[in-house]
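#data-curation
PF: Archiving a pair of folding outputs for the training set. Convention for this channel: one message per protein, sequence first, structure tokens after, nothing in between. First:
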Amino acid sequence: MGDDNVIACTNRGTVSNNYQFNKAGPGPIDPNNLHFGLSSTAGGSDGPGRISCSFSRKKSFSGARKKRARDASQVFDLANSYYLFFARGPVDSNDNVQQHTNIPAVSAKQADFSSNHQLLAGEADRPLAKAHACLMLIAWVGLASTGILMARYYKPQWSSSKLCGEKVWFAVHRTLMISVVLLNIIALLLILAELNWTWSLQVAHPIIGIIVIGLAFVQPIMAFFRPHPDGKNRWIFNWAHWFVGTSAHILSAPAIFLGMRTPRLYLPDYALYIMIAFVVWHVFIDIILEIYQCYVNYSKKKNRPEEYPMGIQKDVPAPPPDNRGHFLRQVIIVLYVIVTAGLLTAMVVITAKYPN
């Protein structure tokens, strides 16, 4: 949430009301008077975990009264209509509300404070925020993770086959990573639309997110201008491409974790556990493939046939392609895709459906 008037009904032994403004973080409208603008306040407990509050507030405040506020613009004029949000969560020692622990219930329409009528409320659906999150999950958990493994460990695989005129690993890697960039662009536009085309860098998620998107966007540009494989500067591209791609992939994990706890989603704990399971699974497969690749390379070097003396190798047939490790790598990538797809599907479904 942001730029909201908050009437906090708190219970610290005694139920009370206070008037706050929610921007980057909550704070009192008047630091010297937590009950600024409220009158006829009353509160009580309706049972374990349940409290109720009542209060009165003028529709508008005079200039002199508003001057006592921390910022006059933070005192909303109730001659205007506003949506009502209802949320629950903890408070700090100063009775300032902390991040809510549930998806807020939101009034179905704006409240007219000049009339006395019943408002129906439902939990905020946030379809654009959910679509943004789902696309980012698909991009970084599903596509980028698989594409990185293909480029790192599967260059020797299917060496005699072509896909769209390219080596199989390269065709798959390029398709997956271009898809990642496109999904990132769409997801960025969706969340900007959700935020009314404004941007805030006061919390960690958008900061890390924009870095990840920027790094992802740089990758195809670098690839377009890459030197020839035999060029003297090719090694610079190889290291830069690896560093930028790896950095983006690593940073995508904390961006996703933080995104799951943003007010527009606030997914349940089990969604976080599934994401943790994916991270552990990906690291495990990466380590297994790295160890196996080292073993295969060592075996090839150890069992390399002796060179023939000059002048007699012309009648020796060319050795067959060395396919050691190909079958096991195929099994690993198929297993990886199946498990990752399952974890990804679970996270996408939870994101799209929660809290329905």
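PF: Second:
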Amino acid sequence: MNSASFTQQLNDYNNKGFAQHPSHNNAIIRSRHNQKESTGNEEEEKEKTKYKKRVFGDAGDVEGFKGPWTPWDEELEMNRKLNENALTAEQVEEIQSQIKKVKAAPVRETFKIRSIFHGEQFRDYLGRTFVEPPTDLKPVEHDCYLPKKLVHTWSGHSKGVNAIRFFPKYGHLLLSACNDGQVKIWDVYNKQKCIRTYIGHQKGVRDICFSNDGRRFLSTGYDNNINLWDTETGECIGSYSNGKTSLCVKFNPDEDKQNQFLAGSSDKKIYQWDINTGKTVQEYDEHLGAVNTITFVDENRRFITTSDDKSIRVWEWGIPVVIKTISEPHMHSIPSIAVSPDRNWFVGQSLDNQLIVYSTNDKFRMKRAFKGHITAGFACQVNFSPDGHWLMSGDSDGGLWFWDWNTGRIMKKIHAHNGVCIGAEWHPIETSKVATCGWDGNIHYWD
């Protein structure tokens, strides 16, 4: 044995009480104290691990013979202790009575579609409701001017406002859709307060659309439902759902087709619904991503759709076949589209921070682009002034931008909201009044 092995064995002897004998390789040397302890422990371990012999019984006794299923004595002792600690019948009854006394958790009420009227009286002294436009409002052609200052703020939503729409032709009412699941309609001319709240979605409302006369409107939300409302009474006339989230809705502008509307869905399809039957009558399935916008052109015989697949597609009404596809490598997703008042051009809000212009004729060629604002990642609305002279858009920093349609120059920028300015609508009659909405929950009115 060398010195290293000897040192190791010495350490084992001091620490453990045994080591290899230096003279005999196969011999083990132990200390006296360790030898006594080990002997005693070994005997105790043997006694503990020694199973007591089970009594199987006589094999000739058919009823008494248990064979290998005879329980061990330890199992019998454990069962005996469990039976001693078991609850009595009286104790079980007492516990059950205490459980019955505990009040059950309140049942959550089922969601109920409803509306709330906030006005003082439903009809005025002439018997007219708030839907009737003021007698002094007459839609006529006029020149528009850029707004200069904030004149009013509508506040009442608890979350960000996704969309706003003026009442068709007259603009005496303003409809707003919010992420709190509510749609509100506001008075523009008189007291400028909320007139009615429409509660019909359990999640945020994504888009809204008036009918031609403004008596009805559609709302679509992230709860996969599309609701048709009576603007005046607040009654939900119908609810439509196919289990998918509709990101945009649009009535057919033709007077004889006001019973049908289109819904762009997150499942890459456009559904054509019939209000009278409550069913889909057509599906347009060519996009490769969620459908973001629907815009009617060419005297409403065709409509344009944009999608997350970064393409623009043109369809014939009622025919589920694409007649024109615009898809270039440099294109980005277009979450908002506006048509010029002369119906010859449409502008798309491209997510590469520019507004792109296309013609609405058969060729659908790109004309030019407007730049300067930052909208990447946000579906900021783009819109025209009623005379077609100005083009406006919100941006991600809360700004409101104005361009000259003819020259393409940036004419003005207004800091409209503290968050993203998601929507902007020009009043159809007033020459220089613009409404904006943002994710700060406010709706601003500019003049």
